[in-house]
Amino acid sequence: MRQHLEHAKFFILEKTKKNASSFGDRLPTSTEGGKYKFADDGFWVGGFWSGLNWLCYEMSEEESFAVAAQASNWRLTKRLYEKPDTLDHDTGFLYLPTFVAHYKLTGDSSSRQIALDAADRLKERFNDKGKFIQAWNVWVKGEAFSEENRGRIIIDCMYNLPLLFWATEETNDEAYRNVAVAHADTCAKTIIRSDYTAFHTYVFDPDSGEPKYGKTFQGYSDDSCWSRGLTWAIGGYAYAYKYTGNTKYLEIARKTAEAYMSRVEQDFIPLWDFSVPNRSEALRDTSAAAISAASLLELAEHADSEDEKQRYTNFAIQTLLNLYETYSTRFEPENEGLLNEGCGHHPAGVDLNCSLIYGDYYFAEAIARLQANGNTKGYW
């Protein structure tokens, strides 16, 4: 088993090095016909390519990965300082695996400052009346769903909170931590359901802060359980516990993990939404599987017993083995992605049956964690 994981590591290193030679300073998003597409400012996923290279640097200590990781930094720096209105709650995904990673791995002070400035932008999205971080900006003025964005949270934001927790650790300014804790508490009362599945989004009155209703954007229905969203909840609350020691967060992480593990397919790779009616015909989402593995390995670090730790670790390992052996591109040398069968935005018909840069990233993160026995420097 460990030998297969070692093979997976070298597969990740080899393909990432090959991609770096052709990607240059561009930011990949998802594949089409086995070739990555790119976004000039990175969209919400721009941090994961740099993060993937930092993971490879950590696993291999090869300087070429550090060089590749920094090649596109200028794009995210320009976005932060010249186009801050394009940022939203996914600021953590953009600046944690890039500038925080660079700082943690090398001590680079300029990256530290850029990451702190990004944390400021995330903190500014806090709605004090509702005690939540606004997820998205208003995309189209006057359009109903877009206007709801003024009072919308989405489950993905739980995975962005470590940027705020890290900022408090760096500065001793509790304002960052207070926002993160308030948001986690609000999510616990609203977007996390009583059965520990999660709504994709939850809407509040932006002026009064009163909670209104759960609603989906990328899931099958408002009341369904979008699988990737549930994996964001597992890791998000595991990290919230790591940074605060609040056992309430650990309990939510455990129970959302149970909700996920009890619903996933027998080969450990989930359907894109657990509530779809035609399960035999539904697409899988390997990105959700990869996020689950990384999240469960983080949760395992906070287990109360060796049995509990092994249960989460073994589930993550089996997930990774199946991703590598059945869903990876290891026999497709011209395919630039690492994992096939990612499901980006099913309702919109966007990025289906492809590689997703965040799926590739979390696959690599989980492999790196296992190689280091949980002792990676970490970016969260």
What does this structure look like?
The protein has 380 residues and is mainly alpha-helical. It has a single domain, classed as Glycosyltransferase, CATH 1.50.10. It has helices at residues 2-23, 47-60, 63-70, 73-82, 91-106, 109-123, 144-148, 162-171, 174-189, 227-244, 247-261, 286-300, 306-327, 357-371, and strands at residues 28-32, 35-38, 126-127, 132-133, 152-154, 201-204, 211-215, 342-345, 350-354. The strands form 4 sheets. It has a 3-stranded antiparallel β-sheet with strand order 5-6-7, with no helix packed on it. A two-stranded antiparallel ribbon has the order 1-2. The two termini are 27 Å apart. It holds the Pfam family Glyco_hydro_88.
Overall structural domain count: 1
What's the β-strand tally?
A: 9
| CATH third-tier fold name | Glycosyltransferase
Q: Please state the second-level CATH architecture.
A: Alpha/alpha barrel
Helix content: 40-55%
* Rg calculated over all Cα atoms: 19 Å
- Name the poorly predicted regions: none
**Average pLDDT number:** 97
Q: How much of the polypeptide forms β-strand, as a percent range?
A: 5-15%
What's the end-to-end separation, in Å?
A: 27 Å
Question: What string, H for helix and E for strand, traces the elements in order?
Answer: HEEHHHHHEEHEHHEEHHHHEEH
Main β-sheet description = 3 strands, antiparallel
Described by the principal axes of the CA atoms, the overall outline is globular
| Level-1 CATH class name | Mainly Alpha
Keywords: Hydrolase
Family: Belongs to the glycosyl hydrolase 88 family.
Protein name: Glycoside hydrolase family 88 protein
GO molecular function, one term: hydrolase activity
